[in-house]
């Protein structure tokens, strides 16, 4: 069953990406259009136009669906049609908070990828069971989906999510100890946490930390975080347009959507690029986010709304510095990514 696991995983990840990219595009395009008409307020970008509110709802549906779709089609590539349903369910579970020890835990796209692989191989293993003809007819529609979702869901909640909740608590303590100390170190740590899982638990920990400080009228960490959230998708999008020999045509088309998502502060726009090439993409976007956030923290740039990207530039204490810091972070990430990423094989 695991004889060709390397090739199976590469095929599975490519399959997952090919199916979830259109969902990313739907989410990114509609969010960009709708949020561009909003105004920065205490609750983030406030959209007043009824039509734009509906566009925003469509866009958010795409963003919420993309991780379950990724997990489902990774599972499908390995285990076939019976793996689709548990893949969707487990992907949704990974991307939505589960309360563990009074801490809401979600693992984002990394957890969804792991659960998608696990669901695929679980179903593949179940297909080897020797059962009677009567039971075999209900295996694909009843026994395989429900048993795999139950087993892997429980393992995720009680085995994987618990240590993640402890880790999130530990990271929050570290951030709290840095607050009030070196602004550069605080900003760099926020930037690294923001980019490392692109909307996952570590990113959410940094976001929660900055939101707590905002409640106490401390806005500098939020300024650093809002610079950092925009950098990963902007880096990936710009790099895909610049380094044409290193990206496929589909990647360059997706890069335009990623740029839109970066401008409105949706870090998840970098996920398709990270899934296809994590070892080159992740160091570049982490470096870019760390540099941009460290500069913003050093300069004391404050952001007064819980949203990010260039779309909230006028809701900051220094729009010029906010823009420059983001541009420098993006430039660093793009240079690193273009230099590290190899050319496409013919």
From TrEMBL:
Entry-linked InterPro entries: Bacterial_PTS_Sugar_Transport, PTS_EIIC, PTS_EIIC_2, PTS_IIC_fruc
Subcellular location: Cell inner membrane
Main location: membrane
Start and end residues of each PTS EIIC type-2 domain: 9-346
Topology of this chain in the membrane: Multi-pass membrane protein
Keyword Translocase tagged: no
Source taxon at top rank: Bacteria
Transmembrane domains' residue ranges: 17-36, 57-76, 105-126, 138-161, 181-202, 223-242, 254-275, 282-300, 320-340
Pfam families on file: PTS_EIIC
Keywords: Cell membrane, Membrane, Phosphotransferase system, Sugar transport, Transmembrane, Transmembrane helix, Transport
Coiled-coil annotated residue ranges, if any: none
Record-linked NCBIfam families: PTS_IIC_fructo
Protein name: PTS fructose transporter subunit IIC
């Amino acid at each position: 069953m695991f004889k060709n696991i390397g090739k199976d995983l590469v095929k599975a990840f490519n399959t997952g990406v090919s199916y979830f990219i259109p969902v990313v595009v739907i989410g990114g395009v509609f969010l960009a259009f709708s949020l561009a008409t909003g105004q920065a307020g205490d609750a983030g970008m406030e959209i007043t136009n009824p039509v734009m509110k509906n566009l925003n709802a469509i866009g958010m549906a795409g963003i919420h669906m993309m991780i379950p779709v990724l997990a489902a089609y990774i599972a499908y590539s390995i285990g076939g049609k019976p793996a689709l349903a548990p893949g969707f369910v487990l992907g949704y579970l990974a991307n939505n908070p589960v309360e563990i020890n009074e801490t809401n835990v979600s693992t984002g796209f990394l957890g969804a990828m792991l659960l998608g692989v696990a669901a695929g191989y679980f179903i593949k293993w179940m297909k080897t069971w020797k059962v009677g003809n009567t039971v075999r007819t209900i295996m694909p529609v009843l026994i395989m989906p429900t048993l795999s979702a139950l087993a892997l869901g429980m393992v995720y909640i009680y085995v994987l999510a618990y240590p993640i909740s402890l880790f999130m608590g530990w990271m929050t303590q570290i951030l709290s100890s840095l607050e009030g100390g070196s602004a550069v170190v605080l900003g760099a740590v926020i930037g690294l946490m923001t980019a490392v899982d692109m909307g996952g638990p570590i990113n959410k920990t940094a976001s929660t930390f900055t939101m707590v400080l905002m409640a106490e009228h401390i806005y500098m960490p939020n300024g650093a975080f809002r610079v950092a959230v925009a950098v990963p998708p902007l880096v990936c999008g710009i790099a895909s347009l610049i380094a044409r020999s290193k990206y496929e045509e589909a990647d360059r088309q997706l890069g335009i959507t990623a740029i839109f998502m970066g401008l409105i502060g949706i870090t998840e726009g970098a996920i398709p690029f990270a899934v296809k090439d994590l070892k080159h993409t992740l160091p570049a976007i982490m470096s870019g986010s760390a540099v941009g956030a460290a500069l913003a923290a050093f300069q004391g740039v404050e952001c007064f709304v819980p949203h990010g990207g260039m779309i909230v530039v006028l809701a900051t204490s220094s729009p010029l510095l906010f823009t420059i810091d983001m541009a420098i972070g993006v430039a660093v990430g793009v240079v690193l990514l273009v230099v590290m990423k190899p050319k496409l094989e013919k």
